[in-house]
Write a sequence for this structure.
């Protein structure tokens, strides 16, 4: 985000505060803003946010801005203008952090970053609710490495490793970098890592993976991991389109909400495992964290981290819902 966007945000929010009478409202409302609100993970997170707020006597508003920074600016502005007491935001651009946190602070509105960390103007982090990116990537990479060893591919097979990356997002780099380290530690060659850039959606992963497969015609087997389940799903679809069968793919998802669908349907899939992340739990924690600070005046905790669990076709139904 450049200075013009930051200036626009502050100007927009300042106008909203004035028009709302300094954002004073009688209702107890908190707002969650999500960068990809149509993804199942964020739908679940919004449900958890709403349920926790209602349990604690608040109302909650969920705003989907997809990957549009301008929509995120409007959402922050609208939340402040409506008199929201707290905002949780998964920003479409981490560079928005200084501007949105300053705007919220000037309006006296508490803010937490969900999923993707953002920074304040002074370089300190905005209080965070979500998962530890490096820890998640480590778990994904460990499982992928174990499956690679068990497959026997290290003993002469022509294999490659698709690291599907949102290269502009630090939390995603934390995940895929950690996964790469673990797969290499399991015995994969560093030269086998092939980097694929996408924007967090299955469609862009599919589109980006296809040409990579075409440019690596000598590879018979693929290990796949990504920043999220959508990245793995898109790569899986590209591999299927290129003629690779389920036995030619070891894909480990991150989220599990896409991975579990073929498992539930009994359809052979490249998804061999996934790290289950409960969006519901993150939404619940974000709402409770905000409301506790609103009600008590206590500072927001700097970091609230949710738990994760590796699942596969044998145990996912005991751990998670699958729609």
């Amino acid at each position: 985000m450049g200075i013009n966007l930051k200036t626009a945000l502050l100007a927009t929010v300042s106008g909203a505060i004035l028009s709302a009478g300094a954002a004073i409202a009688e209702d107890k409302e908190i707002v969650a803003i999500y960068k990809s609100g149509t993804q199942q993970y964020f739908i679940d997170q919004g449900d958890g946010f709403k349920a926790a707020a209602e349990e604690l006597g608040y109302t909650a508003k969920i705003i989907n801005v997809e990957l549009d920074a301008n929509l995120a600016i409007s959402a922050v502005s609208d939340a402040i203008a409506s008199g929201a007491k707290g905002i949780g935001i998964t920003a479409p651009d981490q560079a928005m952090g200084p501007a949105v946190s300053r705007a919220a602070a000037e309006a006296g509105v508490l803010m937490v970053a969900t999923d993707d960390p953002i920074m304040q103007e002074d370089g300190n982090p905005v209080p965070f609710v979500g998962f530890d990116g490096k820890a998640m990537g480590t778990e994904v990479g460990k499982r992928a490495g174990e499956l690679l060893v068990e497959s026997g591919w290290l003993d002469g097979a022509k294999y490659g490793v698709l690291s599907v990356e949102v290269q502009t997002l630090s939390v995603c780099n934390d995940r895929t970098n950690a996964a790469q380290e673990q797969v290499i530690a399991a015995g994969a060659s560093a030269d086998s890592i092939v980097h694929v850039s996408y924007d967090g959606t299955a469609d862009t992963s599919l589109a980006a993976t296809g040409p990579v497969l075409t440019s690596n015609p000598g590879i018979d087997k693929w290990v796949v991991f990504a920043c999220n389940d959508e990245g793995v799903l898109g790569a899986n679809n590209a591999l299927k389109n290129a003629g690779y069968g389920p036995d030619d793919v070891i894909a480990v998802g991150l989220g599990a909400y896409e991975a579990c669908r073929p498992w539930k349907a009994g359809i052979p899939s490249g998804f061999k495992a996934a790290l289950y992340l409960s969006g519901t739990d993150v939404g619940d924690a974000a709402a409770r964290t905000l409301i506790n600070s609103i009600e008590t005046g206590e500072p927001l905790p700097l970091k609230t981290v949710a738990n994760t669990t590796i699942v596969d076709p044998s145990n996912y139904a005991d751990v998670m819902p699958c729609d």
